[in-house]
Structures are given as C-alpha cells and as structure tokens.
Design a protein that fits this description.
The structure is a homodimer of 438-residue chains.
Chain A lengths: L32 E6 L7 E6 L2 E4 H7 L4 H10 L5 H6 L1 H15 L6 H5 L2 E3 L3 E4 L7 E5 L2 H11 L14 E4 L5 E3 L4 E2 L2 E4 L8 E4 L3 E2 L2 E7 L18 E8 L2 E2 H7 L13 E3 L4 E2 L7 E2 L17 H6 L1 E2 L2 E7 L1 H5 L5 E7 L7 H9 L10 E3 L14 H4 L7 E2 L6 E2 L7 E8 L7 E11 L3
Parallel strand pairs in A: 6-22, 8-16, 9-26
Antiparallel strand pairs in A: 1-2, 1-5, 2-3, 3-4, 6-7, 10-11, 12-15, 13-14, 13-22, 14-16, 14-17, 18-19, 20-21, 20-25, 23-24, 25-26
Helix pairs in contact in A: 1-2, 2-4
C-alpha cells in the first residue's frame, strides 16, 4: 500500500484557479488519467490528466521537454492513444509521473506559462476508452445487492452458499464497453413472461442500470502464475465508475445455468477518468468482516488487506428523464451509497481472478459488481429500488414514477471521496441514455 | 450458403504428392488458414495455408507476384501476423483467394516451381493463435451434454427450461486461449467437498477436458445492429477444434448464480488451422428439430438454416498418459461422435449473440459448447464418460483407469469430414497436456 506524501497534502494548490475550488472533482491531489482529443476534430487521441475544469494534454506536455528522466519516460507512455503501456509500466512509473505532474501544476511551479499552453477546456474535449480492454470481468461483491436480487429470483434462499467464501465473478463482454456519453438502443431478446408456456421475443421490458466501480489492471501476470493477495494492489492502476446496464427480463430467462450473457452484453458504460490508487490513499479503510461470518481462507487474507483493503468512495445515482431535460430540471437522485460496504476488496478480487492461473493483461477492466448499501435507499439497481418492479419509485423534480427504465431516461453515476483532513477526490460522471429499440 | 464449385471436386489433385494421399487431412480441397513461423526461429509470424504435409507460406507467396488482382489483395491480408484483417474482408475475398490458391497448387498449375519455394514442412513450423481474439464466447448447444452434466448437478431436472428455446452461452476468457501444444499447470482454486461445512483451497481434483468446435467471426457488426439469421454465415470465417479445459470441483462450487469463471479460465486450447466454411460446403446437413420439441422462435428460424445449418464433422478424443508415451503406444480413444448432433447451428449461435445489439469483431472466437452425442461412448467430457467420477473408464493400450485427468495426461482432439463423393476435409489436432500444480 502506498503511503501518504506531499501530493496528498490538502493545503497544496495549483496555479490553475478552477483546481482549487471547493467541491472540485479534479484538484491537484487527484490527477486522473484518460484519453482525449478536441471534440469533433479528427486529431489523434492521446493521454491526458484532468485538472480543475481543464485537461492537461500529455502529448503536448511531452513536447515541451519540461519533464525529463524517468518521469519523462513515463510521460511518453501516458501520452499514447491508449494507456496500456503506461499501465504495464507499474507503480514506480505511475508515482514518478504523478510527482512530476504535481510539480508542474502546483502554485509557484516554474514552467507555468509553458504548461498552460498544454491545457484544453474539459468542455472542448471528447474521450475514448482509456485502454484497449483485452478482457472485461464483472464481480459480484455487494452482499446487500446479492440478497436484494436473490430475493427476486430465489425468495427462500437469496444468498448462494459461495458468496461469503469467495468473490464471485463472471466474464463480461469487452467489445461493448463504451465511454460515458454513449447512448444505446433498448435491446431485443428472449424473455419468459410469468405464467407463459413459451418465451417471447421482445424489446426489453425490464431495463435496469447497475451502479458499479471499475478497476484497471496494471502489470499483468503470466498464465499459470497467480498473484498473491499481498501483491495484488501493485497490479491495479486505478478506478472509475461503471454502469453495467442490464435487461432483467432477458437476463433472468437466460442465466440458468451459465450466468448472464445477452442480459448484459449490449452495453457497459465507464467514466472517462481513471483515478489512480495513489490518489485514493487517504480514503483507504479497514476490510471489516463480522466475527460471526465466515472468515476468508488464507489465500484471501493478509494484514495489509485487513488494515486498509477497502476504499470509501461516496456514490450517487441520478435519473434524468425527458421531462427533466425539457423543464431544465436537475436529474433526480435515486440512490446514494458508498463503496466501503462491499464484502470483498479489489485486492481480493484480483487475487481470486488469478488463483487458478488465469493471466491478466495491462488495460484489462474489472467491475466490482453492483454496489448496494445496507439500507433501501442505498440500492445500486432499479430492480432493487422498485422491489422487483412491484413498488414504483418517484422521481424528484417531475414526480414521475419508474419501476424500470423508459426510453429517454439517462442514468448519471457520480463518485467522490471526502473526509476531514484530505482533499476531495472526484471521479466525474458516467452517463448514458436509453434510446428506443431499433 | 456457398455453393459447390470446382474447388470441391474430389477428383482434383495437387502437384504436391502428400496432399493426394488417402486419409490426408489437408488435400487441395481444404486449404485451411493459420499463422506460422519456422520452429524455434525468431522470424516474424505470418499467415499460411496447410497443404498435404507442408504449409504454404503466404508472405513468401505474396512476394512471388503470381497471385494478383483481388486475390492478390486478399493474399496480402492473409499473409499478416494475424488473420483479423483477412477475416474482416468477408466471403468474397475469402473465396477469391481460395480459388487462386487452388489454381497455383493444382496439378498442372503453371507456377509450380516458384510456389514450391514457398513451402515449409509442417514438422518445421510453430503456430500462434490465428487471430488476435478480442472476445471469446462459449455456447452450450449439445442437449446430450446438457442432460448428462445436468444430472450431476440437478438430478431431478437436468435440462434447464431455456435450453430448447435459445442457444445458451457465457463469456469466456480471451487471454488464456492458447494454441495446440501449449501445456498448462493443474489449477488451484476453491472447492466445497461433499458434506463439508467450509470450502477448501486445493489443486483441482476433478480436472476435465471438453470436446468442442470453435468458429471465428469474419466481418463484425456495429453495436445495436443485430445480424439476422439469414445473414449470419456471412459473418463466420471458419471452424477449428477447441478444448475447454474445466476444473469441475472449482466450477461447481463457484458457478451459482453467475456461471463458470475460474473453473474454465485457466486454459482453453484451439487447433492451429481454421477450416473455412467454403471448405465445409459438401458436409452441410439439415438442421433437424423433432416435431414434438419446441420449434425455434421466428428470429432463430429461416429456410437456409433448416436446409443446411448443420455440419457433419466427425470427432474423436484421445487420452495419452505418461505410460502411453513411455511404452510408445498410441493414445487411447475415449470418445467418438459428430458435430451434427448439436441442438443449435452456428448460424443460430451468431444470430442469438447479436440479437440484443452486442457487437462482434473480426477474429472473435466462439465455442460451440461440449459436443456429446446421443450414446454413452459419444460423451465429450470425462465427467460424463465416468458418470460424475463414479465409474472409471479404462484406457486402451495401458489398461489404466481414469475418473478425471491426472498429471501427465495429454488430451488430443481430432476432427474430419468424410462422405461418399467428396474429398476428406481434416481439422488436424488440438493437443494439450496437464502439468503438475505449481
């Protein structure tokens, strides 16, 4: 686990005023990575770091020659059109570049005028996926979500016996992972209506979102060589927000016995900025497992994970209907929770993923599974909030009701870390809108 | 569906004698594609076609300039270090190149001496994966396998209600797909022993193979744009053999409710040569669904699929123990079946995969699921052959017994098409060996 250093000092300020505003997602202590170009241009995509309301164009910065040595080498990797090589470079490279970027962006930094020329307003850029995602894996690590959804499918026995013993996961579809702001069409598929004798082919009638976080793999592991838990975080580059859109009617009909497939693979959205594990150091929390519950087997347990395996990320889900947009109203907040409630840590997820020898590669994406907290208002999916579609929720602002998502509904995930004595670290937003079925 | 043409004429012969031998896997009517270099060299990998006991090095052939025009363009694509671009080029390009290769390899072809210089003995080459596999999907389309395995997990209700209504699938792990000849270590993982109160961390005690075929995606489809069944085969480049190695103790503990994960993702082996759909034209068979069983919904039904959606590929599984190798004995054949028994066709699999809008990309790999025929000796996994590990099978040659795979066991899959009035089309072999746990 990385230690606190001067880049976490909450008193540190940038010469860029928008980075110092209270409540800013991207102060100088954050420095999340993404891939950008000027909106609507045909420029080459390149790496960038968010700072205040600007992005620092790393390809332009690299040309200035103000960052040299090992940090300069890391900058060259981070400036490419995908971050895979930078992710592969490992924690020392990540930290070296973080410190160098902090130095050029801090108040009193010597190269301010030169570096200013490498800024572009966030409003003027478009993103693409930060890495070429070789494989995408989705975990299932909220016990509250597992119980809530389990009740819909298996009322007598909502939690499967394995849940408390291992971080369950399934392979997802890498090709349909899209960047925030990409809308998608309501999917068609096969569903079995209650009481019917034969399934129907339909446009999804129970469309849902899933509030998740994602994490990106840094250095990979060779096939047949598991990553021990104590080393797992050295293989994790950083985190983002992730919406694992779900067609519940299709999913529940198809998923026995081999798991979700078409119910999930039509679209998965991620936020454009990857917040590094370095930036999250002030927000690590103990991994807490109640004494009366199964304790992890030895390969899923070690002191560092127990002491600080968790991350306290505040999370919020907004639903913005066509009415909200027409009337100029803010999206209705329909859920609010924290990532700290997860039953397994991201290090445990990565260690479990490799325990049988599965090889991870730089730039691979893992989802944490839906994040639902212990109370009803903390549920990370509308199937939970509406109790399986039986109790509609009411949207603030318009008073509309929802059991599942309607065409024109946009879902906006937000995440941020805040506590006394630390600078706020924001994740920005992950947005996507449901278009009518084709 | 492609029609028969002169390249399927069983009387056609090559100037290469080994291509004309009775029982050869790679006569001039086959021409399967792979990616090779000289064994043990550090040459660049490049595309190749198998012919007799040789491979035709397509990069060397392209330099000769004997194939020009549209076929020459396709040859340039097929000569690259991965076949993705050639796969993306589509059926017309595939067929044009097939015809041109047939012309230069046939008896009396004008460029024989030049083309001979582009041959390398198969014994002298090594392969890598024929494409960069973006995503790997595994289907579950043998009703006999589903019933056999279902009995182990759910004795009362072996076949899930969805099986006869849609081709079930799950996403597999692309990073651990390896080429035939790659050995792997017995995986560790978590299992729940019968009657135990807590799971154990162990080296797999119920290691299995799965006899499957794979098919490669040619041109992809855009996200949100399903491929109709009638067009599905235009998106399929060709087929190979596939062994979906399975750790049954880990798999059965982990897979409820999200499906197989670590039980499968430690290794998946494929044969090196992709037999094109063009080469398989003489072996297409009707898609037969008994009248008293559910008939496919309209989007999974069309006349071409009914008339010739199936493929009659003969399949064999060999198990070669250390004793077989020490004594110089041939592998014991432990199963023999045909792909024609599958409950769903590859066109139905591809159409179903895209029905919700999931985008497929050139070079993606799909597995058909374990191929088990209607009788006991036709089972495509050892968990079926040994009835869940309760009835050991006896290996021909050595008389050894097996319930599951032991260290040192190599599994060799073979496939071929044969019928009166057509040239034999072989798939070669897919081999892998179990190494001891690390």
């Amino acid at each position: 686990m990385t230690l606190l250093d001067h880049t976490h000092n909450p008193a540190a300020r940038s010469w860029l005023a928008s980075a110092n505003l209270t409540g800013a997602d991207f102060p100088i202590q954050n420095l999340p990575f993404g891939v950008i170009r000027r909106r609507g241009s045909n420029e080459a995509f390149r790496g960038a770091v968010a700072i205040g309301d600007q992005v620092l164009d790393l390809a332009a910065l690299a040309k200035l020659g103000v960052i040299t040595g090992a940090a300069g080498d890391a900058l060259q990797q981070a400036a490419k059109d995908a971050l895979n090589d930078f992710m592969a470079a490992g924690p020392d490279a990540w930290r070296t570049l973080r410190h160098a970027l902090f130095d050029v962006l801090k108040e009193g930094g010597t190269a301010e005028q030169a570096v200013r020329s490498s800024l572009i307003a966030q409003a003027d850029v478009e993103h693409r996926l930060p890495s070429r995602i070789g494989d995408y894996t989705d975990f299932y690590t909220s016990i509250h979500h597992a119980r809530n959804v389990g009740r819909v499918i298996r009322p007598d026995d909502p939690l499967t016996p394995n849940f408390q013993w291992l971080p369950i996961a399934y392979h997802g579809r890498a090709s349909s992972v899209v960047i925030s702001g990409t809308d998608y069409h309501r999917p068609h598929g096969q569903a079995m209506p209650p009481g019917a004798k034969a399934p129907v082919y339909n446009a999804c009638t129970r469309l849902d979102f899933e509030l998740e976080m994602g994490f990106f793999v840094g250095p990979g592991n060779a096939m047949g060589r598991p990553v021990p838990l104590a080393q797992a975080e050295q293989h994790i580059f950083g985190m983002c927000l992730l919406n694992d859109w779900s067609a519940r009617d299709h999913q529940f009909w198809e998923m026995n016995p081999l798991g979700p497939f078409l119910g999930k693979n039509f679209c998965t959205s991620i936020s454009p900025w990857i917040v590094t594990m370095d930036a999250l150091v002030p927000f690590r929390v103990a991994f807490e497992r109640p004494a009366d519950e199964p304790q992890p087997l030895a390969y899923l347990d070690e002191p560092g994970n127990r002491a600080a395996g968790g991350v306290d990320v505040q999370l919020s889900v907004g639903l913005e209907s066509e009415q909200h947009r027409t009337k100029g109203l803010a999206a209705a907040e329909i859920s609010r929770t924290s990532f700290r409630h997860q039953y397994w840590t991201i290090a445990q997820m990565l260690a479990q993923h490799t325990v049988g020898g599965c090889n991870l590669q730089p730039g691979d994406l893992c989802g944490t599974g839906t994040i639902s907290g212990p109370t009803a208002g903390e549920a990370g999916a509308i199937v939970e909030l509406s109790q399986g579609g039986t109790k509609p929720i009411t949207l603030a602002g318009t008073g509309e009701q929802r059991t599942f998502l309607l065409d024109g509904d946009a879902v906006i995930l937000r995440g941020w870390c805040e506590r006394e004595g630390a600078a706020r670290i924001g994740f920005g937003e992950c947005r996507g809108m449901v278009l009518p079925a084709v």
